[in-house]
Amino acid sequence: MPRENQEFVPRENQEFVRVGVACFMIYRYMYLEIDRSDIRNYRITADQVLTTEQRVATLGDGEVLMRIEKFALTSNNISYALAGDFLDYWGFFPTEAGWGRLPAMGFGVVEFSKNSDIATGGRYFGFYPVASHHIVQAKLTSTGFIDIGLHREKHAMTYRNFEKVPAKTADEIAANENASLIFRGLFTTSFLAEDFLRESEFFGATQVIITSASSKTSIALAQCLRTNKKIQIVGLTAPANVDFVKLVDLYDDVVPYDEIESLVKDLRSVVVDMSGNRSIVARVHQHFAQSLMYSCAIGATHWESTRSTTNIVGAQPQFFFAPSQLSKRAKQWGRDELNRRINEGLENFIGDAHSWLRIDYSHGADAVSEVYKQLVGGLVRPEVGHVLAL
């Protein structure tokens, strides 16, 4: 089982005040906001203090107020920040010009509802801002509800969907819920990337090289690739992470970045870049030359290296946009079958990850700030998964 700290019950942004014989709850909503011009800069903001009655009065018809119970922060969220303008992640939860609210997968509870189809108390999984609360213009679906706000119309449905889940119990928390919170988004990306490569018959390659092999998204991709016995899986990683990547035991070979040139250069290969480090990718291209059949760009764990001007020879990197593959398969397989396959793969992945994953809980503005700062600085250990509440 994952090693987990004690579950938190955050209420730092809520207070009870007594006036005479009456007791009122007052709210102050809190948000993590990122400087869109430099993701190293961030702030914690809070809106005005309101009573319960005042807060309910701010809701429009059809809206629900979600108390964000907890969310996961991983290197995936840094990728969202880096692609915030390019892929409009900053458009999910608009705020003051020049700033963006970071999307994260989490669980929320309906605290107040002005939507006759959605009751208070329901618990939902989905994309939320890194915040204490979130208001959604909701429309009921067979599995929960979707956000139908005008600013969400152009966003992929996977980012707008809130899936109803059972009320949490201690047993569920102790089992897989928090690991699922950490892994579900990144595993889905990896599942779809493997599906895309397999559909493309690996572009004629017999080897897949994955950069940033210690990242959770890379590990998930390696797990998905293991289902294809004809493909050799090579993980590239920093020397300090070699032992951990070997411990995960999903790669056929683990190679430190300073030994890229030791790889057999005439073996037809595909590189999947999770690092965003242009210098590393350029070295892989240079080494394999015409034997590199395809170059797939997904992540940016080495985000400060993305601005490198190093020349990349041969097949140019192609950005993989997971929602496009998700939409395609949902139409071909049906949404239920697609979800079944993803959930089955995720369950297997979590089962294997229990041997190395450590889940750390923390809550409050200082804790969220510290974890974000560590992620931006590349300081989070690969075996650690962070679950937080603001």
Provide tags for this entry.
alpha/beta, single chain, 390 residues, 10 helices, Quinone Oxidoreductase, Chain A, domain 1, six-stranded antiparallel beta barrel, six-stranded parallel sheet
The CATH topology annotation of the largest domain reads as Quinone Oxidoreductase, Chain A, domain 1
Q: Which structural category do the helix and sheet elements fall into?
A: alpha/beta
- The number of distinct structural domains comes to 2
Q: Tell me the helix content.
A: 25-40%
CATH architecture annotation name of the largest domain = Alpha-Beta Complex
Distance between the termini: 26 Å
Shape label: globular
Number of strands: 21
| Residue-averaged pLDDT | 88
Relative strand content: 25-35%
**CATH C-level label of the largest domain:** Alpha Beta
Q: Could you explain how this protein is built, in words?
A:
By secondary structure, the chain is α/β, with parallel strands linked by helices. Helices cover 31% and strands 29% of the residues. β11 (133-140) and β12 (144-147) form a beta hairpin. The strands form 4 sheets. Strands 7-9-10-13-12-11 form a 6-stranded antiparallel beta barrel. Strands 16-15-14-17-18-19 form a 6-stranded parallel beta sheet, with helices on both faces. The protein has a 3-stranded antiparallel beta sheet with strand order 2-3-6. The chain contains 10 helices and 21 strands. Mean pLDDT is 88; it is low at 1-12 and 15-23. α4 crosses α8 (322-333) and α8 (322-333) crosses α9 (335-353). The chain folds into 2 domains: 3-168 and 356-389, Quinone Oxidoreductase, Chain A, domain 1; 188-324, Rossmann fold (3-Layer(aba) Sandwich), CATH 3.40.50.
